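Structure (tokenized):
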């Protein structure tokens, strides 16, 4: 069986060469059209506010806001900043009647999810969580849990494309 292509890149030394090419690019930076030749390896900050590592700004945009607007929800989350999730839900017009925080990356047990679903029913609310949490809910409960779907909206998507295009092979074209 063929091994994954990333292992070929690693073993052939191609990956190391690409990293070296990136470092060279950052030493006299021409990553964006400003081409200011800033030495980002020294963490010198230019107009882009990026030092050694690029900083690309983005927001998370709710995709299914209408599902929650005006509805009662029991919100729960096991993420770094659950308050942000609750604020997003409230901002969409959801009435949060209960909220439950769990540790980041928490794997929900059957008993925990059963308890949350029962609590939501008692409050006349819908249990809702993040997409990141939903995949950590035992499979048989997933149909009972609403998910606030979000998508990344890059502030400058062309910067991201430009950055990636320098290090990724061009997509294959099919005749
Ligand atoms: S990405 Fe930043 S450091 Fe690089 S050329 Fe543009 S402004 Fe200069």
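Design, position by position:
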């Amino acid at each position: 069986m063929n091994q994954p292509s990333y292992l070929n890149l690693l073993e052939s030394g191609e990956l190391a060469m690409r990293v070296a090419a990136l470092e060279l690019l950052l030493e006299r930076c021409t990553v964006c059209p400003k081409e200011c030749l800033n030495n980002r390896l020294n963490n010198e900050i230019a107009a882009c506010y990026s030092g050694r590592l690029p900083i690309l700004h983005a927001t998370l945009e709710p995709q299914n806001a209408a599902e929650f607007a005006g509805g009662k929800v029991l919100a729960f989350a096991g993420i770094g900043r659950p308050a942000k999730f609750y604020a997003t839900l409230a901002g969409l017009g959801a009435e949060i009647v209960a909220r439950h925080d769990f540790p980041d990356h928490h794997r929900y047990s059957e008993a925990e999810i059963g308890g949350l679903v029962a609590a939501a029913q008692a409050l006349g609310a819908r249990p809702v969580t993040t997409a990141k949490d939903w995949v950590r809910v035992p499979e048989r409960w997933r149909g009972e849990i609403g998910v606030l779907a979000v998508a990344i909206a890059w502030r400058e998507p062309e910067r991201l494309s430009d950055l990636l295009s320098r290090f990724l092979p061009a997509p294959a074209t099919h005749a």
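Reviewer-requested clarification: The chain has a mean pLDDT of 90. The chain is about 35% helix and 20% strand.
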